[in-house]
Amino acid sequence: MTALPPPTTKKLGLVIDLDICVGCHACAVACKEWNDGGQFGPLPDEHAYGKDPLGVWFNRVHTFEVQGTGNGEQGTQKSADMTVHFPRSCLHCETPDCVTVCPTGASYKRAEDGIVLVDEDKCIGCKLCSWACPYGAREYSQVRGVMQKCTLCVDRIYNETFDEIDRQPACVMACPTRARHFGDLGDADSAVSKLVAAREGYDLMPEMGYKPVNKYLPPRPRRDGCGSAPMHSAGKEEKVDLSTASPLLRWMDRILSR
Amino acid sequence: MHPAFSVIFFTVVSGCGFGLMIVLGLLLASGAGLLGRGEAMFALTLAGALAGAGLLSSMLHLGQPQRAWRALSQWRTSWLSREGVVSIITFAPLLVALWLLWRETNPDALRLCGLLLALSSALTLYCTAGIYSSLKTIRAWHNAYVLPGYLLLGLLGGGAWLWLIDAAASNGGRSLQIELAFATLLLALASAALKRGYWHFVDAPATASSVESATGLGRFGTVRAVEAPHTEENYLTQEMGFQLARKHARKLRGIASLLIGVVPALFALMALVLLHRHDSLIALRIGCAGVALLSVIAGTFVERWLFFAEAKHVVMLYYGAQRA
User: What does DSSP assign to residue A221?
Assistant: First the structure.
């Protein structure tokens, strides 16, 4: 049923710390690996070793550049320029249109924990849900003819054959910098909720009104001077003192300077 | 957005079919016997064939067409599902009307059928437009121009079809030539004017979402994508990142306006003038209607291709777009 369930008390999701993500893509690779063999797999690629490889990934790591505001002159505070690595995956929104636009009931939001899933046995591959998602969370598999998306590793997090510590999404397990956290964002006392409160975690594109469950933690302010390091010397002319150099070098400098 | 031919064909051809059903339904509902029996039966059959061909084509772009029946289940929330349900329901009054015309019985039931046919086919076009206008992620679709656009172009195509059928059928008998040519003239001008308004809206700078709101990094300064997650295309960049059309948008818009508005309006006008003087020239009447119809169909294809190809999706903010 593609009608949304009543608001869930349990809201499982991810918290992604943009301050410490180094953009290594380990989360994306671990996701691809687990889900290719997991309950919702496979995630086939088209001509993976050919000219135009194409395939479904649930997690993609972008890189953005932030040009700080202000120029430091006339008392304006210069904020640092930054490079921000930005993992992007399903946000398991509270009121997502990707669920309600589905004509078959294949796309659904679980009432018990808020996870948004696709029932691949019902999906007709009309692609409408991917059009409705502003976050690019859904990718269509040309090979399988159905829509696929992040499952929040629902086949890991409830898996009783795993040790308790391993009942987390593959991306969270793989992150070498602990930039990804998994938990119940509907519980104000959970570790992830406290982290969001302490670090002022935020929603992506709140103007869309889909109320994402996943939160992003902003980069912390850079230390003094960190963002204004003399990075721009490349364009300027180098000053070389030739007065102490050998006549041969002075002659070469003259020749090469022509 | 990637313009899939099967979807463009579907919206254009079934749009014509349902538009024709609206016109036929209203004529039947009026009960004045404005159409000949054979003509009405032929037009109803054609409308059903156009709508059916379009609906079948729309299933071709599905990844799992054999499961298409499942799409009828979620009419409570999904415009696509509603469209499927209503379009199938529309065939009931269509078939009953055909049967009544064939048996030449019960004119009151025929009038009722006509009314139901007009209503349900209009509702189908409403649902088709709803599929697109409900998507908040695509500004070019999520606006008030989309619904009247689908209705007007459906009516224009359907009206032009009936004009041609009537021109060919009305061999000296009672004819709706003047009315249909006049309707084509008005609908062509209204459609062209609406599309101009739509394109004006699409060209206005978008303000709702930006790369800053998509990443939440706007508080630190201006944001720019520097590196994509992958070196090759992926589903998102292929489906949502279509760019070819925007390069030729201006010319294609001109062509669409010409084919939807100017050409059919001119030929309708010509038909109105000439019909007044040489009522006997059947070839001329058919010619005017035929040119107008061909022009409308070609123009609607161009318009619909642009409707998809020009539409920008907000997800491209993650792939280098600055505003959406």
Answer: P
- Quick check: B89 pLDDT over 80? yes
Which residues from A are below 8 Å from B228, CB to CB? 62
Q: Point out the residues of chain A with pLDDT beneath 70.
A: 1, 70-78, 223-239
Q: pTM above the 0.80 mark?
A: yes
Q: Compare CB distances from B78 to A62, A102, A136 and report the shortest one's residue.
A: A102
**Which residues of chain B have a CB within 8 Å of the CB of A61?**
229
Smallest CA–CA distance, residue A256 to chain B, in Å, is 36
pLDDT tens digit string along A140-184?
Answer: 999 999 999 999 999 999 999 999 999 999 999 999 999 999 999
Q: Residues of A with CB below 8 A from B236's CB?
A: 130, 136, 139
Its ipTM equals 0.92
* A86 C-beta neighbours (distance < 10 Å), count: 24
Q: Tokens 């161009």 — which residue? A: B302
Residue A54 near chain B (CB below 8 Å): yes
Which residues does residue A180 pair with via DSSP β-bridges, in sequence order?
A16
Residue B312, pLDDT score: 92
B59: nearest CA in chain A?
Answer: A126
Dist CA B149 CA A31 (whole Å): 43
Kindly state the DSSP code that residue A216 receives in the 8-state scheme.
E
CA distances A174 to A55, A154, A166, B195, Å, are: 21, 16, 11, 51
Please name the amino acid found at residue B174: R
